[in-house]
């Protein structure tokens, strides 16, 4: 049986949260050639859908030991900028992650799913989505992910992390390096589309 970490993490989260056909010619009269031509033209003209809003990269500076971690990030939650070289030790965190930790996770190619509400149902739904990705990073003989398993996944940019995050305007925020999308309810299709677009995406990190 795969590891079972969701229920205990969500109970902890609940206790600690601070705050989720177009008109045209009749197709029956169109010739196959004309239909194929029109379809091809439409496909060429349609722009690629890129999930989330892009925020210009604010660099990869590491805070030195003892240095103030005050930094003006250009998005909230942050999507790039100065940070500490630290990793998290759990895929589902019951407490908010410091901004300097969030940015380091994103710099490696991980994706964060954060929520701003007293909503164990939302937290559980996000954790279940994350589990579908994170479970692939845990050895089959581990009933629970060890901190070393989590950090190895984060180091490789293969982790989807769930945590509360208070103060933002929307109920849910999805972040990747230089990318932010917000939602006011759990939309599994949109969330998975964001994760699939940016998780372990080397091209997106190269900025």
Structural account:
The protein has helices at 6-16, 32-45, 99-107, 120-134, 147-155, 188-198, 202-205; strands at 53-54, 111-115, 160-164, 172-176, 179-183. The chain contains seven helices and five strands. The protein is an alpha+beta fold. Helix 1 (6-16) packs antiparallel against helix 4 (120-134).
First-to-last CA distance: 40 Å
Task: Please state the overall shape, judged from the principal axes of the Cα atoms.
Answer: globular
Q: If helices are DSSP runs of H or I spanning 4 or more residues, what is the number of helices?
A: 7
The side-by-side strand order for the widest beta sheet comes to: 1-5-4-2-3
Sequence of secondary-structure elements: HHEHEHHEEEHH
Helix content: 25-40%
What ranges have pLDDT less than 50 throughout 5 or more consecutive residues? 4-39
The radius of gyration over CA amounts to: 20 Å
- Would you identify the CATH architecture of the domain at 51-59 and 77-205? 3-Layer(aba) Sandwich
For the record, the CATH class of the domain at 51-59 and 77-205 is Alpha Beta
Query: What is the SS-derived class?
Result: alpha+beta
Overall average pLDDT: 83
Percentage of residues in DSSP E strands: 5-15%
Most strands sheet = 5 strands, mixed
Oligomer: single chain
In the CATH hierarchy, the third-tier topology of the domain at 51-59 and 77-205 is known as: Glutaredoxin
Q: What is the tally of beta strands?
A: 5
Please sum up the structure shown:
This protein is α+β, with helices and mostly antiparallel strands.
What attributes does this structure have?
5-stranded mixed sheet; 35% helix; single chain; Glutaredoxin; 11% strand; 207 residues
């Amino acid at each position: 049986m795969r590891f079972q970490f969701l229920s205990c993490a969500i109970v902890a989260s609940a206790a600690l949260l601070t705050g989720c056909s177009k008109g045209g010619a009749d197709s029956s009269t169109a010739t196959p050639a004309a239909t194929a031509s029109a379809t091809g033209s439409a496909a060429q003209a349609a722009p690629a859908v890129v999930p989330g809003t892009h925020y210009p990269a604010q660099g990869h500076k590491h805070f030195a030991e003892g240095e103030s971690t005050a930094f003006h990030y250009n998005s909230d939650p942050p999507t790039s900028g100065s940070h500490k070289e630290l990793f998290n030790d759990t895929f589902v965190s019951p407490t908010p992650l410091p901004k300097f930790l969030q940015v380091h996770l994103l710099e490696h190619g991980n994706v964060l799913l954060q929520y701003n509400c007293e909503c164990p149902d939302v937290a559980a739904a996000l954790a279940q989505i994350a589990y579908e990705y994170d479970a692939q990073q845990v050895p089959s003989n581990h009933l629970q992910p060890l901190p070393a398993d989590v950090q190895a996944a984060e180091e490789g940019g293969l982790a989807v992390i769930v945590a509360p995050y208070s103060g933002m305007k929307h109920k849910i925020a999805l972040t990747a390096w230089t990318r932010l999308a917000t939602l006011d309810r759990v939309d599994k299709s949109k969330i998975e589309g964001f994760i699939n677009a940016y998780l372990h995406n080397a091209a997106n990190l190269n900025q």
